[in-house]
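batch job 7 of whatever, protein = prephenate dehydratase
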Amino acid sequence: MTKTIAFQGDLGAYSHEACLNARPGYDVLPCRTFEAVIRAVREGKADEAMLPVENTTYGRVADIHRLLPASGLHIVDETFVRVRIALLAVPGVTLDQVKHVRAHLVLLPQCRAFLEKHGITSEAATDSAGAAAEIAESGDKSVAVLASAFAGQIYGLDVLAEGIEDEGHNTTRFLIMSPKADPARRADAMITSFVFRVRNIPAALYKAMGGFATNGVNMTKLESYMVGGAFTATQFYADIDGHPDDPAVRRAMEELDYFTDEIKILGVYPSSEIRQQIPG
């Protein structure tokens, strides 16, 4: 039986592209929201979820870190998509005719230089691939779309320009999540992702981080965010190199536990080979 992976957006979205790259042969299930993606897996409508967590140009994807701890799912893989943005229009339209574009709010500032150069105004859409579908259906020649060339293929739109993003390193990181964890899984390079909340004592975060430094554990990400609407209830999301069973990681996590009120491991998974190819 063919497995299914859920993603947020319409067919042709960059998340759809991530699904095809990381899980070839899977059926895909488009969902309107991130919450709907998680719900689809929890209800058995999909086997896995594809969720974007950060972009090298735009930064952290809003709400994702809040959703992950309560999702009931486990990170089992990561993947990356190089975001190449294309200008799409219905067949017959030329670049000089384009005066206005629609795209997801995240894409618009990533193409600011191109839009200013050609005097093109813009407006935000809920989803870029969805905007491509709407224009293809309406046949509207007055508006173009910023989306992937892949979306253009799906909806029969012409690519008027491609690779128009301002930054050449524009890449999105995705996490693949499953109802079941596989703690015994091993690879040459592993990542452990977790969230924690420090105790309300002086220098708690500094002391909590000391265990990773003294044990030589590389922390590749540390981000804070509020929970429950309280300024004092700060939670942290972290990625570290290694597996919880590694002696150095185990010692670092034991020290972290001493200075925290809560620790929750979100996933233990292989580091993607693509990670090493990303400039930075």
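notes: The CA atoms of residues 194 and 229 lie 21 Å apart.
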